[in-house]
Amino acid sequence: VFTHCVFFFFLPGLGFCYSIINGPTNATVLAGSEARFNCTVSVGWIILIWLSNGNPVLTVISSQGAVETSDRFTSQNYTSSNGFTSELIIHNTQLNDSGKIECSTQQPSERSFAFLSVQVNGSLFIKNSTLTVQENKTVEIVCEALGWAPAPDITWMTNDSLIDKSMYVTQQSQGSNDLHNALSILTLTPVDTEILTCLADIEALPNPQNATVTVIFVNSTI
């Protein structure tokens, strides 16, 4: 905690002293959702400014409250005995909101910052919902992820067990609008009917997105 004190020498004994007690912390969210950041300043604060990538987006003045200039950036305020907390709420987050979020005090100036990462949950699909495979035949199953940010991690499962990474190859490519695509090809020689699941994951997703295919094994003696 850095404490700043300003004293007016022409008025002996008069001055103010305050600091940022707790600054904002990093956040990772899905595009379209809310992002929230807290900044707590000690008693005696006068003005607090929130900045997104260097641009002021919201000002809080102790005497009159929050001055909001955009519907997308609003705040909630909490006062306790040891300080004041401003919570910045970014609504309907977009990919270009990613970057530095700063809490700044004025008179004197002090800044504390965190980083916002906005991620995009794209689409995931396997073209066929079922595949019929003869005994001793090898099949390639293609799983496609389109329009993600960042590119998702792809894994495969069969009947709730992870498939070894040596059995599939995943390629990533740049899509449009700073989005990413991924193509994963699983090579398999089935010995039984099984359900295969392709999973795509990014940090902001609570659970991976999935696509499934049922591989129907046909015994050649039948």
Could you name the CATH homologous superfamily of the largest domain? Answer: Immunoglobulins
Mean pLDDT comes to 90
How do the SSEs run, as a string of H and E?
EEEEEEEEEEEEEEEEEEEE
Radius of gyration: 27 Å
Distance between the termini: 76 Å
Helix/strand-derived class? mainly beta
- Beta fraction: over 45%
Structural domains: how many: 2
- Biggest sheet strand order reads 3-11-10-5-6-7
Helix content: under 10%
What's the overall geometry? rod-shaped
What is the CATH fold-level name of the largest domain? Immunoglobulin-like
State the helix count: 0
Biggest β-sheet: count, sense, barrel?
6 strands, mixed
CATH architecture of the largest domain: Sandwich
Note poorly predicted spans. 1-15
CATH class of the largest domain: Mainly Beta
Keywords: Signal
Pfam families: I-set (PF07679)
Organism: Scopus umbretta
Signal peptide: 1-17
